[in-house]
Fold this sequence. Notes:
Chain A is built from 13 helices and no strands. Chain A starts with 25 loop residues before the first helix and ends in a 9-residue tail after the last helix. Chain A is mostly helical. Chain A has helices spanning 26-54, 72-79, 81-114, 119-125, 127-130, 133-144, 150-157, 172-196, 201-209, 214-242, 246-253, 269-279, 283-307. Helix content of chain B is 41%, strand content 14%. In chain B, α2 packs antiparallel against α15, α15 packs parallel to α16 (392-404) and α18 (430-445) packs antiparallel against α19 (451-467). The interface between A and B is medium-sized, with 31 and 39 residues.
Amino acid sequence: MTAAVEAPPARRPQSWLKPVSLHGGWRSAIWFLLPALIGFVAFYLYPALRGVYISFTDWNLIANRGDWVGTDNYERLLDDRQVWESLKITFRYTIINIVSQTILAVAIAVLMDRLTKSVLIRGILLFPWLIPNVIVALLWVWMLDGNLGVVNEFLGWFGMEPVRFFTDTDKVIPTLAGINTWRHMGYTALLIFAGLQTIPKSLYEAAALDGASEGQMFKDVTIPLLRPILALVLVITVVGSLQVFDTVFVATGGFGGQPGGPANASRVIYLYIYQYAFDFNQLGYAATVSVLLVVILLAITFLQLKLLRAGESDLA
Amino acid sequence: MRKTLWRLVAVSFAVTLIAAACGGDDDGAAEAPAEEPGTAAAEPAEAPTETVTIEYWLWDGNQQPYYEQCAADFEAANPTIDVEIVQFGWGDYWTNVTAGFASASGPDVFTDHLARYPEFVASGVLVPLNDFVARDGVDTGAYFPGLAELWVDDNGNRYGLPKDFDTIALVMNSDVIAEAGVTAEDFAAAQWNPDDGGTFQQLIMQLSIDANGNRGDSGDFDSGNVEIYGLGLEGNFGAFGQTTFSAFAGSTGFSFLDVNPFGDSANYDDPRLAATIDWFARMIDEGYAVPIEDVESLGGTTVFQNGSAAVMADGSWKIGTYLGADTPFPVEFAPVPVGPSGSRASMFNGLADSINQNSEHQEEAWQWVKYMASAACQDIIGESAVVFPAIPSSADLAVASHEVNGVDVSAFTVHVDEGTTFLFPITDSASQIEALVGPAMQEILRGQADAADRLAQVADEVDAILGS
Lengths: 316, 468
């Protein structure tokens, strides 16, 4: 994942372009690579290429066949207002989710680093991440229900009106983003925590000697030196966030609801693809939207790595 | 060392067996003699002729025990056929059926739905039953009128034999209506219209209570602080509103399609439908009906069972749910109200069993379908009273069985007796229509869109799909 980033040539000898000399070790190396290579070709490369092929057909899922229709699906995509609506919803979800999750995770990581060395507490923070997504979604559906949920019971004690977290068109996306923040912040914090370990303690000592406060140290030492790790974390979480599906499907589908509801307010792009593929049996068009999603994800990832200079560290 | 080696051999043998069993029905592959003690993956197959296993899928867990009984009787009469019943919840069911078709596997026989089967027919994955029916002389007139014909497509091919039917009625919380001095007879005599809701709306208002104990028909009713809603809603309205608006819209004379089955234009722009949906939106707004937001997540049944709604329309397949332990109060049933057309109306839906084109044992699958559609099996289902069987004499058993328990289910059967049913709309694009109309209904019921405008817009989109 070393991106081509502008950098002082002295520090980057471009070694990744030169073939690595294995001193004739290729023969044994190939055996170690083969299992992964077979897996990659069978489960990534071939399905991806076939997906692109299917996007040029009118593939019917149930009949499992389709005819070549050229660029029909792509022309349809350009005219399809619903796709852009779904993308807008997805981006809204991603922004809320990433901002809240990253801020909380950095805060937790710094607290773990500066306050406690307890492995137990670090372990507890990972708990939500260990629960399967579907269970998380069902759990919150019950807890946040407008009539029967325990959360609204609490709110009621303070004289507040019941909040319809999942069935209010304006609240459903923030609610879903919040649930996934709850689930992922511990894991993200752990990644950032690992990054914090790479910052030499001597820098904090020096800063303290210069009379820097804890807040100044965070701003001027921690954050700049954390940048490469933060960039990696952001790439992973943003890509994951744009691909949100299971939580939305389970939580808004509820018990007989319409996934993506209410009134399509939470129909994220993956759900849109799912609908075409598995509800409408139009696998061809679903594949076309998937290709669009891949292009978007690639562009976003590239842009992030470039902007955040992920390949470099400020640690001399 | 020897022992380890032996275990290794045993394990690899077991793995091979399992792999063979998973690999599909390559005749006899899974029947490999299993002499290895402890690796009983394969059944001992010492029957005189080869036993054929028919996999049968259904979604209603309540019905499974009774179909297991049917299967046991069927296997006793047909020793060479083994029926394996698999149940999935409604949501997972169709995903799994679709995945089965896509991967050229899936069940041999499965419970089919009117909203789904035309799409399967269009994809050519169901076995037409015409030849089987003709050969074995199955009397398709043995069922309630109309049920068998629902499963014949516009080319005259038959894709299922009926097993049951369902209609819609009102379910009432007996405690709540008694307290308000309302009886089931009041509801049975009620009239409804979409303008002022008729006497039906008067009853619903009478049953609504706010937090201060004011009833909906008093001037002091606080619509923003309701304790018990007079009218519950079973759930999402969706495109066909089977358990929600269909009985009301139907009683205005509205019908979903120009021709049913297989029409090529829908009537979503019919002003009678807009007026009906508008009435529901007003009832919600005025605090007499449960807000749609409250039933979309956990479902309206939960709201009703929670005691927050007094009366609700629902389907006959849910009778057992309301009489069961999850409903902590006694209930009664009443027919849906008489509408502007001068009569009641109930959507008439029936399930059937279809055979998968991928089945390698279509003859045996047909035997099982035929048995489930016969009086022998339908009597078992009828006696259990879990649903109304498609054969009238078997359905009588269900009614009688409820009567023994002191439950009057005539509110559901009255539609069949009086001929006030209309057929479930059958199109080959039900899921796309659902995806278009469902969200529109959600907007209207939230007061975010005007019923007539939004439905007119949706009508064009639906017609574009049906016409293509």
